[in-house]
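RECORD TYPE: inverse folding
INPUT: structure tokens
STRUCTURE:
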């Protein structure tokens, strides 16, 4: 449960690369695409991130973040998941490469091309894995 709350805070927080924007600054095409893809979304907050529009929202009491380009094209959705949902290979990698570190948040990322990644926030960095749990990269938040 702690993971869900923490990821929810992360999704709705402003990072160094994101800037909160009001709903009236979001193009109609983006809002329409978002509403079509997530018709039950509630408590939507928008940010600009690297030229794209990111909506942080809730759907059935779960926290999500979805990214759309300026034309309304869906790019990816990030969903809060418990650390136990990470693939075993990812868990093993974290245990061996981040000894004693606390995993702050975990998420499943589904990209528009169908690629699934997992993300674990550790020591202020996002550690990214593929759908099998293979380490891909580490990013600063």
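DESIGNED SEQUENCE:
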């Amino acid at each position: 449960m702690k993971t869900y709350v923490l990821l929810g805070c992360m999704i709705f927080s402003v990072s160094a690369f994101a800037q909160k924007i009001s709903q009236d600054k979001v193009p109609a095409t983006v809002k329409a695409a978002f509403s079509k893809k997530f018709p039950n979304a509630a408590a939507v907050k928008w940010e600009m991130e690297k030229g794209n529009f990111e909506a942080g929202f809730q759907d059935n009491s779960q926290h999500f973040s979805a990214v759309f380009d300026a034309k309304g094209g869906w790019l990816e959705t990030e969903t809060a998941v418990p650390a136990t949902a990470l693939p075993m290979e990812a868990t093993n990698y974290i245990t061996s490469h981040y000894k004693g570190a606390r995993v702050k948040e975990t998420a499943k990322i589904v990209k528009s091309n169908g690629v699934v990644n997992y993300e674990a926030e550790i020591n202020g960095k996002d550690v990214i894995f593929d759908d099998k749990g293979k380490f891909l990269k580490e990013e600063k938040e």
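NOTES: Strands lie at 18-21, 42-49, 52-59, 62-68, 74-80, 103-111, 116-122, 125-130, 135-140.
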